[in-house]
Write a structure and sequence with these properties.
Blueprint (H helix, E strand, L loop, with lengths): L32 H15 L13 H10 L4 H19 L9 H25 L5 H16 L25 H35 L9 H25 L14 E8 L13 H20 L8 E3 L13 H14 L3 E8 L5 E9 L3 E7 L13 H5 L20 E4 L2 E7 L6 H9 L4 E6 L9 H16 L3 E5 L5 E3 L5 E4 L6 E8 L6 H5 L2 H25 L1
Parallel strand pairs: 1-2, 2-3, 7-8, 8-9
Antiparallel strand pairs: 1-12, 3-4, 4-5, 6-7, 9-10, 10-11
Helix pairs in contact: 1-2, 1-3, 2-6, 3-4, 4-5, 5-6, 5-14, 6-7, 6-12, 6-14, 8-9
Length: 549
């Protein structure tokens, strides 16, 4: 893209012009419609990198487009362009949130998420005149995702750049710095692509117009192009080399092996009333388990050590409902193995809890895990009267779920399972806690029936694939209606189900104890990269103030 007159060369600091006999005001940064169109196109292309489209390589185009759109612009222009980019990205990506509750909650959530990218656009514009600006741009992406994953109401880090990389060379970086490092690599590759494009544009312009002021010569610009391309290629090369010391796709290597069964019982209907026939949902999971027991007796399947049911497999509290408890007992007795049951449990007080219960065939209910991060406006409603002003759909949440306070590491038949319930898999700290707590494998109990046949299930499964690589653990996804899956430690999918189809998986899986680099360093890469981005902002503000003087 041609640079405006007076713009500094790529990778340099802007400096005040030398004094002249006549004061000439620099031209205002351009706000041509092409910048807005470029930002919108970048957001739409980024969507294509996520599940539903799975064009993983296109992820770098999003950050590249935003970097080009805001380069050399004022902060307020960057805010606008970042907002356009964010809306173009989040509105289609999160369309599943409005499938049964209407457009307002969907568009409100997408708009709120886009506000964070507006801040990113403004920050990127401010730092775009610094030396080595592609590095600061990538660090700011990590900082923005860190902010978005924590504020407000615990944050909502869906759509992080790293979660798009379910395959390809950048996926391996998750084992060394978690999702933040993968996001940084995607953003850095995109920013370097933008830098190469800007430098090439300047080189061509200098070639055509050798007398134009404030332009580097063609040779200097071409050197910037070459350097950017070399660094651009170095990022995926580093990812490819990072695969070498990682374990292969074997489920049984790295520790003592246990046989685990995953049950997808299915539901009578999709939508918010998926569990209107709560007993039917429970019966479906009981029946699939009894059928598995018959297959084991016939020698067609291995005897499992552990059986995993999904979230909401019993929305009837088995502690207070004798019939529900009897049915779970029946399933556990038939399969002769403990079952991890996903249940809705009454109490404490006026609340309910989203609870995983270890149900033993001999002793009945034992250890439990209560979901630590209930979803705001879906499992509980803060400031109900305020949000009711915008949508009466908040009253579909009749009783608020209470948050648990203990890490979800459960001993199920001698197997140390790290349990996460539904959206908890998106939060770095919750996953890190269960692995640090001694989990030899990770279980994600989820219910996606409320999102119908949208891309939500596939997007959530992508997160499990990143977590498998990040922690070197097999991840088991148990869903009421799909997608259930067995994900190997290298992120590959070994088994997966179809949506709204009953299914059963039985696999021998190693309980791993080795630690990845990502587990050992924890959140340090995210904080370090965030500090780098913040430092670049401070430097840009200081230089801007000096120039203003």
């Amino acid at each position: 893209m041609p640079a405006g007159a007076g713009e500094p060369a790529v990778g340099t600091l802007s400096r005040p012009a030398p004094p002249t006999t006549q004061t000439v005001r620099p031209a205002a940064p351009s706000r041509w419609p092409w910048r807005t169109l470029l930002a919108a196109a970048g957001g739409l292309v980024l969507v294509l990198a996520f599940p539903g489209y799975d064009l993983v390589a296109l992820a770098v185009v999003g950050p590249a487009a935003l970097a080009l759109a805001v380069h050399g612009q004022r902060v307020r222009s960057g805010l606008w362009l970042g907002l356009v980019f964010g809306l173009a990205f989040f509105v289609p990506l999160l369309s599943w949130t409005g499938i049964y509750v209407g457009s307002f909650p969907w568009l409100a959530l997408a708009g709120w998420e886009a506000v964070h990218l507006a801040l990113l656009g403004g920050a990127t514009a401010l730092t775009s005149r610094l030396r080595f600006w592609p590095v600061w741009t990538a660090a700011l992406w990590v900082a923005d995702e860190a902010l978005r994953g924590r504020l407000v109401l615990g944050g909502f880090p869906w759509g992080r750049l790293g979660f798009s990389q379910t395959e390809g060379p950048l996926l391996a970086l998750a084992a060394y710095g978690g999702v933040p490092l993968v996001s940084f690599a995607v953003a850095l590759t995109g920013a370097l692509l933008a830098a190469a494009g800007l430098a090439l544009s300047r080189a061509l312009r200098a070639w055509r117009e050798p007398g134009t002021a404030a332009l580097q010569g063609p040779a200097a610009s071409l050197r910037v192009v070459g350097g950017s391309v070399v660094l651009l290629l170095a990022v995926p090369l580093a990812g490819a080399l990072a695969w070498l010391p990682l374990a292969g796709p074997s489920l049984t290597a790295g520790g003592p092996t246990s046989t685990v069964a995953v049950i997808q019982g299915d539901v009578p209907r999709a939508g918010l009333d998926f569990n209107a026939q709560r007993r039917a949902v429970l019966d479906n999971h009981v029946q699939r388990t009894v059928e598995l027991a018959e297959a084991v007796a016939a020698g067609e399947e291995q005897q499992p050590d552990v059986v995993v049911w999904p979230e909401n497999s019993s929305d009837i509290d088995p502690y207070t409902n004798v019939d529900a408890a009897r049915q779970i007992d029946r399933a556990a007795d038939a399969i002769d193995a403990p079952i991890l049951v996903g249940a809705v449990v009454e109490g404490p007080g006026e609340y309910v809890s989203n609870t995983a219960i270890v149900w033993d065939p001999e002793d009945g209910p034992g250890d439990t895990y209560v979901k630590r991060h209930p979803v705001p406006l879906a499992e509980y409603v803060p400031a109900r009267s305020f949000f009711r002003f915008f949508s009466d759909k908040v009253d579909l949440v009749r009783r608020d779920f209470i948050a648990g306070d203990e890490v979800g590491v459960l001993d199920v038949g001698g197997v140390a399972l790290g349990d996460l319930i539904c959206f908890e898999v998106v939060y770095d700290g919750l996953v890190d806690d269960v692995v640090d707590g001694g989990a030899g494998m990770i279980v994600v109990q989820t219910n996606n029936a409320t999102f119908g046949r949208t891309d939500e299930s596939a997007q959530q499964l992508a997160m499990s694939r990143l977590r498998a690589v990040e922690f070197g653990r097999t991840v088991l996804v148990a869903a009421t209606s799909g997608i259930s899956a067995v994900v190997a430690p290298d992120g590959s999918i070994v088994r997966s189900s179809e949506l709204f189809t009953p299914d059963v998986f039985v696999e021998a899986i190693a309980q791993r104890s080795a630690s990845t680099v990502a587990q050992r360093v924890g959140a340090a890469p995210e904080w370090a990269l965030t500090a780098v981005g913040a430092g670049a902002l401070v430097a840009a503000l200081v230089l801007r103030r000096r120039a203003a003087r």
